[in-house]
Structures are given as C-alpha cells and as structure tokens.
Automatic annotation (TrEMBL):
InterPro entries: Mannose-1P_guanyltransferase, NTP_transferase_dom, Nucleotide-diphossugar_trans. It comes from Thiovibrio frasassiensis. This is NDP-sugar synthase. Pfam families: NTP_transferase. CDD domains: NTP_transferase_like_1. It comes from the Bacteria. Residues 2-223 form the Nucleotidyl transferase domain.
Amino acid sequence: MKAMVLAAGFGTRLRPYTLKRPKPLFPVLDTPILLHTLTQLRRNGVEGIVVNAHHLREQVKVLLHDHEDVQVQMEDVELGTGGGLRLAQPYFAEAPFLAVNGDIVHDFDLAALYQAHCASDAEVTMLLHDCPRFNNVRVDGEGRIVGFTGPAGEGERLLAFTGVQVLNPAVLNPIPAGVFYNSIDCYAEVIKSGGRIQSLIVSGHFWTDMGTPADYLKLHEDILLKKLPGFSSGNADTPFYLGKDLVLGAGVSMQDWVSIGHGATIGEGASLTRVVVWDGARVAPGSILVDSIITEGE
C-alpha cells in the first residue's frame, strides 16, 4: 500500500501563522503534524509515500530530506487537490493508493479502509462521518456518494468528508496536467458519467481538521487533557508539555494546559493558560497569555 499526503495548501484560515510555516509543519507537542501523519501511515502498513508541497515548500523538503520512504513532490504552481494527485499519478502505477489531507489528526484504521476499497468496484472510496459543521456530501442508502452539495434528496443523508480516501489512479486521467483542479470536481464528473464513488462511514472515533487557530488550540487541549493515543506529553501526570532545552524563568505559572517547544524561553513571572509556544519562541517577562499561539519573540 502506497499513500499520498496532501500538504501543498496555503492555510489561509491560519494566517498569520502560516506566513511563517506551512500548516503541515505546525508543531503538535513540539513535533510537526506531518511527522505524526507519516508515523501513522507507516503503522498502518504504508510503504512508499508522496508528500506534495507548494506553500513554503522548501521547509517541507528540508524536514523530509532523510526520510528515504518519502518522495517530496515540489509544485511550482498551485495545483489544488486534483492537480496535485494527478501529478503524482505515475508514482502509483495502477494500484489503488491512500490519500490523506496533511492537516488532520485522527485514529482511523487506514488498512481497513484500503481493504474495503479493494474489495469493492468503486473508483474512489471516501471515508465519511457525521460532523454537522462540515456535512455536505450526499450519500444514498447504499453508501454511494451522489453529490457534494446539499440539500439531501429522498433516501439520502448528508455527511462530512474526513480528508481520507482511497483512489484508483485511473480516475485521475481526465484531470489536465499542470493546472489547478479540485479533486471533487473530478469526482462529480465520475458520478455524472455513471461511475462509482463509494463511502465508508465511521463513528466513535477521534478526528479534527486543524483549519483555524481555535482548532489548533483545541487539538492540544484534547491531547493534553484527554490523553489521546499516539501522542505522548512526556509526563502523564500533568497537562503540560515541556520541550527540551527550554528556559523557564523564576515564577512562571501555567494553568489548564500548555505546550512549550524545545529551545523556547519563558520570561520571569509569565503566566500561560491554554497556550502553545513554538520551538525557539520567546515569551517576555511578566506576560499574561491566554488561548494564544506564540511563534517568535513576544
């Protein structure tokens, strides 16, 4: 099983933070979310991964330079999800492959999704769930996807795409090479022509789309307070993650939950409540920070 991580987007909803780092490189407990994703793929049996990169792409290339099982697809122009998948198509030959968005955290059984797709006659199998904030995929009573805009018709329901899917490479053939294209537009044409885009519906799982600053902070809250599997805070007894080689000034206080990256400096008397401090960042003495992301000197 091979996989592609879609990591080329601009992350506009996370500005100004994405002006400093691409979203897949945002640290989660001091480790870029992209590295968490790669670890999860390998644990699910993936051998051979493509990661596409456009926005601040050199940072992605540097991060992954020693990952021998990863091929970084450097995209000089914005290609969108469909265009990025189309460019990577030769890497996958004719075998179905897994594609995951580079800004999500979840606990799905990816191997089971892959097996379900291979046992079907679908051209694409999209992992869906009920998430009212994002529900816009129309699914019929047999789990077949019939559209990507509401409202639901008779015998249909609206569900949300998790950002995880398995594709037959040939489904990408109609996408013109080297231009911006959304994969959903490709799938809509497949449906219109009678092709099968199937859903696999899941529930009882953890999933988050790290799309906004509030989502990013909530992810850390979930990890540090709920102790999500797959993430180690380094100290199971407290909701505080402290990276290596950081400097904590005298009288620093932390409340609720806090994550501080390696090499950071927290000035004397600072107070942090529900705060993520990136690696190497500095918090000025006496600062009072609540629900904040600190990326550099304050």
